[in-house]
Design goal:
Length: about 300
């Protein structure tokens, strides 16, 4: 089996004073069910009280902090896909556009580029709906996780990095705020664009979706070499007269390292890791309840 991991290239600095953000009520514990028949893990959370946050000119994100809900992954295995469904308090299914973004953080493994906690999976309002699946020959091994300002006009922000491991990039997508045009991966030495993902926007520049690009349909994918310099670039076209505060842009990918056992270990003493951990846990936490057995899918009501 080809071992792969989710790869995130954020272009956003850490938030300062996370503990000063407004704290919402702590929701009930997560309910974790193992469906051995269908080889699924069903995680149910909520209900959540979501305050109305009206949009304000020049403010890309100003929302209450969201509690961090921790759970122990209940089985050894391979993660090969996921699905996220939203329901109201009466069980009616809700559109995915109501979800700004959601991430699952692996506290036992570090990221590929940064010495921070691994962001295992995530979705955002511009993500495709439905199941997210990868081929059966690929899997993420599992055992029993920034913002900037955009001035008026054209604006680009970039980040350079050196991969700690060589391997193939199999798929890429991205997350970008309104007026964001694209995210791209560039060879820093030659300036050559290796891959880019363009957002789909409406006539006002609001981001509607970000496509996924499959790089290994014909061949092994895009090869990244350890120690070589690469740059991730986010591009914005802000048609307003205002500076947009708190914007986000990141490229997300599925990466298959040549030698998975050489993956860098989590270093709790690393300052970057410590800041990341504090920012996550400052939001609060709840426990989880794990149930092993059949896991019925929540009934969808229209």
């Amino acid at each position: 089996m080809r071992i792969s991991v989710l790869l995130v290239f954020p272009l956003i600095p850490f938030l300062a004073a996370a503990q000063q953000r407004p704290q919402p009520p702590i929701p009930p514990p997560l309910h974790v069910q193992v469906d051995s028949t269908h080889h699924r893990v069903l995680i149910t959370g909520g209900p959540y009280r979501v305050p109305v946050s009206p949009e304000m000119a020049g403010m890309m994100m100003d929302m209450p902090a969201t509690p961090v809900q921790k759970f122990a992954f209940p089985v050894d295995g391979w993660l090969q896909g996921f699905r996220i469904d939203l329901f109201d308090d009466r069980g009616h299914e809700l559109p995915h556009r109501l979800l700004h973004h959601l991430i699952v953080v692996n506290f036992s493994r570090r990221q590929f580029i940064y010495p921070a906690l691994e962001r295992l999976l995530g979705v955002a309002e511009e993500s495709d709906t439905g199941d997210v699946r990868i081929p059966r020959t690929i899997g993420v091994p599992m055992r029993a996780g920034h913002r900037f300002n955009v001035p008026p006009g054209h604006f680009e922000i970039g980040y350079e990095f050196n991969p700690p491991l060589s391997g193939h990039l199999l798929m890429v997508t991205g997350h970008i705020h309104d007026y964001g045009a694209l995210v791209r991966l560039v060879d820093a030495a030659s300036g050559k664009t290796l891959v880019e993902v363009k957002s789909k926007r409406d006539s006002l520049g609001h981001v509607l979706s970000m496509p996924r690009k499959l790089l290994a349909i014909r061949g092994d994918g895009l090869y990244l070499r350890a120690g070589r310099r690469y740059r991730v670039v986010g591009m914005f076209d802000n048609p307003t007269r205002d500076t947009l505060y708190g914007a986000m842009a990141s490229m997300v990918g599925l990466f298959a390292p040549d030698h998975y056992r050489e993956w860098p270990a989590v270093d709790p003493a690393d300052p970057y890791y410590q800041r990341d951990l504090v920012d996550l846990l400052a939001n609060g936490k709840t426990d989880s309840v794990i149930v092993v057995g059949g896991a019925p899918t929540p009934e969808r009501r229209r």
